[in-house]
Design a protein that fits this description.
The chain is mainly alpha-helical and 612 residues long. It contains 31 helices and four strands.
Length: 612
């Protein structure tokens, strides 16, 4: 397929053409190494540019093949790898050349590394050993998602063409049929994938052939045939427990969860520590009964088995888009309705907002920062007074003048604010991943982290930062508070937990003024319980006590953090059953005073953040 970037006037090709101009000057001076470096850079920028290949051929002709100009080493430049691949093919070693192009495609599948005539030439089928091509194809498949991203499919099609031409010469080569099926499946050629996999399994029955056939059937929606093929793979090799996990995952994805769990149980009976089976089993058990304990055990397993056979995403999949398990949830304050109206220009500048009762200081300060000319009148401060810490030892972060709150701490250092700006993000894969990411705040002074809770830095000038600043500044403030509290977890980690400064600071924040900071501090404690089994009983006790306090206060007045604290409780390892019942009652909204966030369905912004 013609690359539209090859047009003479395409400005995207100018950097490559500038490199080629330098290469021609070096050729004129017979400075072959400099010429080769410029050609390699041009190929990296425009892999299928005809002028680059013409100059590469000239270099080969002038230097006896040119291979010495493009040496391989463990950290070779990708343009050098690709240039050497083309030269190997020209020297009569197309399989070796194709292997280098495939390595480049594995590094960057969306680049058109193989979009050159020799890769798609039907004559290549006679020149490449089918077994070698099968291994190249299998290696390429390990680097490409199933299915491949839309922008990766056209650049990868030449490899499928090479497989097709080689199979025309070797129609019963089982390994190439299976590997070709795997590639075809990734590129959306599902019927071709089924055809090749069936031919491969018929030509040489084996475990691998049946696995390829099972995957092809699964992509084609033929689940019964897929399971039958995978069962035959088990018959070939009953000790390959990864196939058990694949069968379980396929069954679960199609509503047969009970049967799927039987397959994970069979695998774990053979080897209780086999990572694929453990990950799949915990994920499916969580889907089956919703018990958080399955995810906590999975996190423990991952911590004790960091060298699994391959990367697993089961924990992240279960936590994805779940409040606190994978993201900062929206706040429940009524005042945020006004904030949304300000952002959408539905509320005129100079308007007055009347609140029936005082709300969280972080919410009101966020509104004031976005709309400083908007006046807010508060009709009542019901009891218990939201301006007072919930316990005498609660840390004071806010100072009140009537119903107006101001930070009680001096601003943090610019360096601390900038470090937080770099790390804060409203989504994460799962709590242990958030804990690991927050280690970047370990060097930030605890006083600065506390100050950042009431002096949030401006959103960064990044794609995510700009989206939050424009559409949901409250979410940005909340996530800075979350990451500041996660940073406190990495403060003086040499101290025993029970008597540590990090525990004392977080518990003081939990029992301070009812605010978004309460949620952030609770999340930090919950996160520590995920990564440190020894602290789980203590954290569960603190969370249960704070939840009970929310429930008591909620019988007298609105509690904007109630829904979120209940979600935090359900995310807490080893929380007792009575506390879980209280949390579920709050989430279900059985009491009118308990306030849930206004946005219960995923917003466009949240979906956008999750994709990134």
């Amino acid at each position: 397929m013609e690359d539209p970037r090859r047009s003479a006037g395409d400005p995207a090709l100018e950097p490559a053409r500038a490199e080629l101009a330098e290469a021609r000057r070096a050729v004129a001076d017979e400075d072959w190494r400099h010429a080769a470096a410029h050609v390699a850079t041009a190929l990296a920028a425009a892999p299928a540019l005809p002028e680059a290949h013409e100059l590469l051929a000239l270099l080969a002709a002038r230097t006896g093949g040119g291979l010495d100009l493009f040496p391989l080493d463990p950290h070779a430049f990708i343009g050098t790898v690709v240039a050497r691949g083309h030269l190997l093919a020209a020297a009569g070693m197309p399989a070796e050349g194709l292997a280098l192009l495939a390595a480049a495609s594995g590094h960057d599948p969306a680049a058109d590394w193989a979009g050159v005539p020799w890769v798609s030439d039907p004559a290549l089928g006679d020149r490449v050993d089918p077994g070698t091509l099968a291994r190249i194809t299998m290696q390429l498949c390990t680097a490409v998602a199933d299915p491949a991203a839309e922008d990766e499919i056209p650049p990868l099609r030449p490899y499928l063409t090479a497989v097709r031409h080689t199979l025309a010469v070797n129609p019963r080569h089982a390994l190439l049929l299976g590997a070709g099926s795997a590639l075809a499946r990734r590129l959306g050629e599902v019927r071709l994938a089924v055809e090749w996999a069936k031919r491969g399994a018929a030509a040489e029955p084996s475990k691998l052939a049946e696995i390829w056939l099972g995957y092809a059937y699964r992509s084609d929606g033929r689940i019964r045939d897929s399971i039958a093929a995978l069962r035959r793979a088990v018959d070939h090799d009953p000790d390959d427990l990864s196939v058990y996990a694949d069968i379980a995952g396929t069954l679960a994805d199609h509503g047969r969860l009970t049967e799927a769990l039987r397959w994970t149980d069979r695998a774990l009976e053979r080897d209780p520590t086999f990572d694929c089976a453990v990950h799949t089993a915990h994920r499916l058990r969580y889907r089956h009964d919703g018990d958080l304990a399955h995810l906590v055990r999975l996190a423990d397993f991952q911590r004790h088995h960091p060298d699994d056979t391959h990367q697993h995403t089961d924990l992240a999949e279960c936590c994805s888009d779940q409040p606190w398990l994978g993201r900062v949830p929206a706040a429940g304050d009524v005042v945020l309705d006004a904030l949304r109206q300000v952002l959408s220009s539905d509320l005129a500048v100079g308007s007055q907002l009347r609140l029936s009762s005082l709300e969280a200081p972080s919410a009101l300060r966020t509104l004031a920062s976005v709309a400083p000319e908007l006046s807010v009148a508060v009709d009542d401060v019901p009891t218990p007074d939201i301006r007072e810490p919930r316990r005498a030892d609660g840390r004071t972060l806010w100072r009140y003048d009537g119903t107006s709150a101001a930070p009680a701490l001096a601003p943090p250092s610019p360096a601390a604010a900038e470090r937080l700006r770099e790390l804060a993000h409203p989504v994460w894969p799962h709590p242990p991943a958030a804990y690991d990411a927050a280690i970047g705040l370990a060097a930030v002074d605890a006083g600065d982290l506390l100050a950042l809770l009431v002096h949030p830095p401006a959103a960064p000038d990044t794609e995510v930062g700009r989206a939050l600043a424009e559409h949901d500044p409250a979410l940005w403030v909340r996530c800075t508070q979350v990451w500041a509290c996660l940073g406190l977890l990495h403060h003086r980690t040499d101290e025993p937990w029970e008597t540590s400064a990090r525990r004392r600071l977080l518990v003081e924040l939990v029992w301070g003024i009812e605010d978004w900071v309460t949620e952030a501090a609770l999340f930090a404690l919950v996160t520590n319980a995920w990564v440190e089994p020894a602290v789980r009983a203590d954290v569960a006790r603190v969370v249960a006590e704070r939840l009970a306090d929310v429930a008591r206060v909620g019988t007298h007045r609105p509690v904007s953090i109630a829904w979120s604290v209940a979600q935090l409780a359900l995310a807490t390892p080893d929380l007792d059953a009575p506390a879980r019942d209280v949390a579920r009652t709050i989430i279900e909204g059985a009491e009118l005073h308990w306030v849930a966030p206004r946005q219960r369905r995923p917003s466009k912004l949240r979906r956008w953040l999750r994709r990134r």
